[in-house]
Design a protein that fits this description.
The chain is α/β, with parallel strands linked by helices. It has helices at residues 2-22, 38-49, 62-72, 76-85, 88-93, 133-145, 178-185, 213-219, 243-251, 255-263, 265-274, 295-310, 313-317, and strands at residues 26-30, 56-60, 105-107, 110-113, 116-120, 158-164, 169-173, 195-197, 200-204, 223-227, 279-281. Helix 2 packs antiparallel against helix 4 (76-85).
Length: 320
């Protein structure tokens, strides 16, 4: 009898281990979209309800922030609370809330308009560009609260996408400071200061890859769940000759930006990546834009994310 029980236990363990090995790896892709990232939190709530835990997470721009924090151990409920209670506009813009009612004032060499830093007299290259130091510091503190600051130490394998402003090449951030990587991935050109990493000068990854499905697949994902925050239909750009404009841009060290403006390589990549998604979640957030921060807007977008994910409920249950 003992031998039979042993054989039965052995077979059961073998079958269980075989099943675990054969289970497809699930990748979660979180697209960019500024304040619309609140909708991604709503999607995470439904994924948790369905019992789905991604094996890999890849994000661009706001998707890197939501994804990075989730990979660090924050739950969807905790992220929901953050979006509904945190002054994200102040954090993202380095705004001095104490000067919020001042139309125009100067403090410590920095000129503010309604609390937003516009000109830094101590740094001539800082005109019209937000440093982003406050959001990076806050993110670093939030990550430290979960006992992790490095990408390599996250509880769920994670990476995010940025773009090198000089070469107009995509850069996938796979190691190092999580907060710094998030900050680079969301550095909208002309608004946020680029992030220097080695020879790279990094800006918002959405310039080149706003829905990085290909990156998630390269990490090892078999099944892709993608959250797309874009509301306008993207179409391939007509090819034209902008060689003169590109040449002028190169003279000023802006070749990457000029090349992006003239060719928009992100559109073709977006269309290709979208076609490779297994479970496509597209929240209906018409009327909201990348700057629609605020408690009421966040609540609406979180609900929109939940609704969009629930429309894929049956598909989600097949992969848990």
């Amino acid at each position: 009898m003992k031998i039979r029980r042993f054989i039965f236990l052995f077979i059961a363990l073998w079958m269980a281990s075989t099943f675990m090995i054969a289970r497809p790896k699930i990748g979660l892709v979180l697209g960019g979209g500024g304040a619309k990232g609140a909708a991604e939190v709503g999607v995470l709530k439904v994924l948790e309800e369905a019992g789905i835990k991604p094996d890999y997470i890849v994000g661009t721009s706001i998707g890197s922030i939501v994804g990075g924090l989730y990979a660090a151990g924050y739950t969807a409920t905790e992220l929901e609370t953050m979006f509904k209670t945190q002054e994200w506009l102040t954090l993202l813009t380095d705004r001095d809330a104490a000067l919020g009612n001042e139309p125009y004032t100067t403090k410590n060499g920095i000129t503010y308009i309604f609390g937003f830093p516009i000109i830094d007299s101590k740094n001539s290259k800082g005109v019209g560009m937000i440093k982003g130091e406050r959001i990076e510091h806050v993110l670093d503190s939030m990550l430290a609260a979960k006992g992790v600051k490095k990408i390599e130490k996250l509880k769920i394998p994670f990476c995010c996408v940025a773009a090198d402003i000089h070469s107009a090449e995509e850069v996938v951030l796979l190691k190092g400071s999580v907060a710094s990587a998030m900050r680079a991935s969301m550095a909208i050109p002309g608004i946020f200061k680029p992030v220097k990493k080695g020879d790279w000068l990094l800006v918002d990854g959405g310039m080149l890859n706003n829905l990085p499905v290909d990156v998630c697949k390269s990490m090892g994902a078999d099944i892709i769940i993608a959250v797309d925050l874009q509301q306008n239909e993207q179409k391939p750009k007509e090819k034209k000759d902008y060689s003169l404009l590109t040449g002028i841009g190169n003279l000023f060290g802006l070749g990457g930006i000029i090349e992006w403006i003239t060719t928009r390589p992100d559109i073709d990549k977006y269309m290709d990546n979208k076609s490779k998604v297994d479970i496509y979640i597209h929240p209906d957030i018409q009327g909201m834009d990348a700057a629609s921060f605020g408690n009421k807007n966040s609540a609406k977008m979180i609900k929109a994310g939940e609704d969009a994910a629930r429309r894929q409920w049956e598909k989600l249950l097949t992969i848990k």
